Amino acid sequence: MTVLKTSLRNFLAHKGRMALSAVAVLLSVGFVCGTLVFTDTVNATFDKLFATTSADVTVKPKDAGNGNNNDGAPPVTLPAATVEKIAAEPGVRNVFGVAASTSVTLVDPKTNKNIGPTSGAPTIASNWTVTPNAALKLTSGQAPKGPGQALLDADTANKAHLGIGDEVKVMSAFGTFTQKITGIATFQTTNPGAAMVFLDTPTAQRELLGKSGVFTSVDAYGDGSRTNDQLKSQAVAGLGGGYQVQTKAEAAAENKSSVGSFLNVLKDSMLGFAGIAVLVGIFLIVNTFSMLVAQRTREIGLMRAIGASRRQVNRSVLIEAVLLGVLGSALGVAGGIGIAMGLMQLMNGMGMHLDTSELTVKWSTPAVGGAVGILVTIVSAYLPARRAAKISPMAALRDAGSSQTTGKSTALRSVIGLVLTGAGAASLVAAGAAKAAATGSMFLAVGVLLTLIGFIVIGPLLAAGVVRVLGAVTLRPFGPIGRMAQRNALRNPRRTGATAAALMIGLALVSGLSVVGSSMVASASEQIDKSVGADFIISNDSGAFTPDAVKAVKSTQGLGHVTEYKAVPVTLSLADGKKAKQTLTATDPTYADDLRVPVVSGRVKDAYTTGGMTVGEAFAKDHGLKLGDTVGVAFPGGRTTDLKIAAVTSKDTTFEQGSMFVGLDTARKYVPSDLLPQDVMLFATAADHKNAQPAYDALKASVRDFPQVQVRNQADYKKLLQDQLGQLLNLVYGLVGLAIIVAVLGVVNTLALSVVERTREIGLMRAIGLSRRQLRRMIRLESVVIALFGAVIGLGLGMGWGTAAQKLLALQGLGTLAIPWSTIATVFVGAAVVGLLAALAPAFRASRMNVLGAIATD
Predict the structure, then answer these.
(1) What is the sign of the dihedral through the CA atoms of 140, 151, 98 and 67?
(2) What is the number of other CB atoms lying within 10 angstroms of the CB of residue 353?
(3) How many CB atoms lie within 10 A of CB 302?
(4) Residue limits of the MacB-like periplasmic core domain (predicted)?
């Protein structure tokens, strides 16, 4: 009990010094809990959506896949007679045929703009049916009853400022048609972000599926006399083969799995960055307790002199750590709920509608958060606690604040750090030299881990040298004040190394990712210049091109040629007796000029002139194939043929790696016209290569009525790649910023405690003439040089990581190393600014000290 009282008294006596450490725990725990609450809420919300909207039994075609035809393939359908067969089964109350497609684009005719979601969610068009558990409910107007009428979901209508009586243009895989909005429906559960438009059943079948009397699925509801499993068994027995039949639970589980895979990736990524913040927070807490123990040397010595045992002293410090962990964790759990609500609002801004009233906080979330916060503080305080327990009673006679480090321990630490760093560097070199991606990735992970730990361990050794160099370069203009700032940074290399290490981790990640990102963009740009011969690349946001869009492109004046690009699913019969489901890329012969694909043997052009095909290098190696071999190909519709391998394409390319090419004429010969997929890409060249701008302008004008169609020249395509990667990196930088914030708090805390530790020294300097302004400058310069030290080792380490990762990416065709020197320089200067800002509060406090009071401090 005495130990507890002493710990509580010390904790409250130093609550100001503990505050920043508590903030570090708060941020770390908050990010962990926020991630868990957010993903649990989204999972629970979607579980509720799937559980309440799934039919008792759902019937789909066996090869329905994911239910869309974004790959250009015709929709897989069921005959309308299926509805009647299921309705005739005993125990079935209601049956509804569904005619739906996700390969559609909604356009506002007044503005000719796409009004579908921009968050990656689909636009879904379907026939309107009133099922017992419909996801939407008609809230105004009336349901579509015939051609030309449509019902729109309320969220899309509000976003596009459309209402009853307005028109909406629907672009499907089978053409474009305009409908008048006759009703608005509101989601009864969560809107997953999709845009929904509903038509009457005959119109949906004709315009979305291309034929009458078919459905994409059938939903059946029982009357309660039979279980869902019994209804499923009846359906399977009555329908025979060729169908996929699911119960309500199975359909909900499948939908949940598709959403859960994305959420799990998001969850793991966010928890990974939270882990980085936790690691950085450990350095802050270690520094805090180390300095507090050093400042309480006399106090601890007196405790030992009056009978306190080593165990009691150790326990006293650890109890303070537990108190810090409990307080920080409690605040972190509350902060995590706030973070989760912020993430939900962010998702709402992207089109999803998550209700914060349905926030899901499982008991495991605060348990995990509390465990993280308390364990982090206990682990961080363990070494300072051991150090405190070793203080002898005679230390009470020494000056408070002394911190002794033996030369033996420093030398041993340096040796261990150098060994770890050397082993890590060797692993990074091995990763760069690896011939297989799996082996290289393993070496890269080991190298990153070992070099990180090694640099942390040898931080004090590096501080002694690097800070001197930085001080000579950056602090010399400040004269004696600069020299004193440098000496203060060098006074305790272990403390300086630990403070800088926290900043080092965040900056190493930033520089490493910058190198990888810049290298990927540079490699892709080089590949475009080297491989792409087409002047224009035309893509479609909704997946497949409509026939009228293809016609508009082909009718453009000033084009030399237009290449169609289709994805044809096939089954290959190989010489080794195996069968493999693959996708053949069926194109016009001009594609061999539009994209110059490197080959191991043969020529891609020969696949078009001889009616053969190409295979990728890896596929050929796996199945023992070579130039001239024949492969059996089963096309959609059941027709089969043998195709001769005309070329084996190289794996050393960024584009079309592993693709199998076949002539479009071959695909048309063996695939029935109603099963032939539509184009998913188009390529075009200008008739006048030297002046392609007029053709570029004409092509953009030709597709103006198709807002889902994007025309890009090579410069546009390079910018697209750069922008997409830039958005991803900015997101990652934002998450890494959490660790950097914690690191900045560490600098502030170290300086604040250092000011307290040097109270008498500061008073003496002020007494002999150091002005307040000079004192503030000295502390600011000390902070800047520590921050720059962290930046130098962090940026250097990160560039090493990034270079090794780029060598590994070269196996995927990304062979250009690009160091983003402007980014590196910006981060380096930013580190100096961070150091300056971190010192403002400690410097101000130091300058406000009473001189006589400071000198009299014991």
Answers:
(1) negative
(2) 15
(3) 14
(4) 19-211, 496-701
Residue 727: half-sphere exposure toward Cβ, Cα within 13 Å: 5
Which residue has tokens 């895989």? 173
Closest alpha carbon to 450 in 426, 466, 415: 426
As a dihedral over the C-alpha atoms of residue 225, residue 231, residue 233, residue 237, rounded to 10 degrees, the angle is 110
**Contact at 8 Å (CB) between 784 and 492?**
no
What does the alpha-carbon distance between residue 377 and residue 23 come to, in Å, rounded to a whole number?
12
What is the percent of the chain with per-residue pLDDT over 90, rounded to a whole number? Answer: 22
| Run of H or E including 96 | strand 92-98
Lowest-confidence range among 247-261, 589-603, 663-677? 247-261
Residue with tokens 């190393």: 817
Determine the length of the chain.
Answer: 858
799: number of Cβ within 10 Å: 18
Strands (E), 622-701: 630-634, 640-649, 660-663, 681-686
Please report the beta strands in 207-249, taking only residues with DSSP state E, as ranges in sequence order.
Answer: 214-215, 217-222, 243-247
Measured CA to CA, the distance from residue 821 to residue 515 in angstroms comes to: 9
Cα 232 to Cα 490: distance, rounded to the nearest angstrom: 76
Cα separation, 463 vs 809, whole angstroms: 33
Q: How far apart, in whole angstroms, are the C-alpha atoms of residue 746 and residue 262?
A: 34
Q: Which of 80, 130, 136, 128 is closest to 100 using CA atoms?
A: 128
Contact assessment for residue 578 and residue 711, using Cβ atoms and an 8 Å cutoff: no
E strand or H helix at 294, and its extent?
helix 248-295
Residue 136 corresponds to which tokens in the numbers above?
A: 């939407």
Give the pLDDT of residue 119.
Answer: 63
The Cα–Cα gap between 751 and 780 comes to 9
Tokens of 542: 């909704």
**Residue 26 near residue 334, CB atoms below 8 Å:** no
CB atoms within 10 A of CB 531: 17
Identify the helix (H) or strand (E) that includes residue 675.
none
Partners of 181 in beta bridges: 150
For the entire predicted model, the pTM comes to: 0.79
Q: What percent of the chain has pLDDT over 70?
A: 92
Residue 119 carries which DSSP code? S
CA 640 – CA 633 distance, rounded (Å)? 5
Encoding tokens for residue 31?
Answer: 């990010």
Q: 104-132: per-residue pLDDT in tens?
A: 889 888 888 888 876 667 888 999 998 88
Secondary structure of 771-822 in the HEC alphabet?
CHHHHHHHHHHHHHHHHHHHHHHHHHHHHHHHHHHHHHHHHHCCCCCCCCHH
Query: Which tokens belong to 176?
Result: 């474009």
| 71 has pLDDT over 60 | yes
Phi, psi angles (nearest 5°) of residue 123: -100, 125
Q: Residue-wise over 624-655: b if at least 16 C-beta within 10 A, else e?
A: ebebebebebbbbeeeeeebebbbbbbbebbe
pLDDT in tens, 276-318: 878 887 877 777 777 777 666 767 777 777 777 777 777 777 8
pLDDT at 66: 45
- Contacts of residue 621, defined as CB under 8 A and 6 or more positions apart, other chains included, come to none
* Angle formed by the axes of helices 714-757 and 772-809, nearest 10°: 140
For residues 526, 529, 532 and 538, what is the CA-based torsion angle, rounded to 10 degrees?
90
Burial of 161 (0-12, 13-18, 19+ CB in 10 A): exposed
- Would the pLDDT of 69 be above 70? no
**Region of residue 123 (left: phi > 0; alpha: psi -120 to 50; beta: else):** beta
Helices 437-457 and 407-433, packing angle to 10 deg: 160
Place of tokens 């699913």: 569
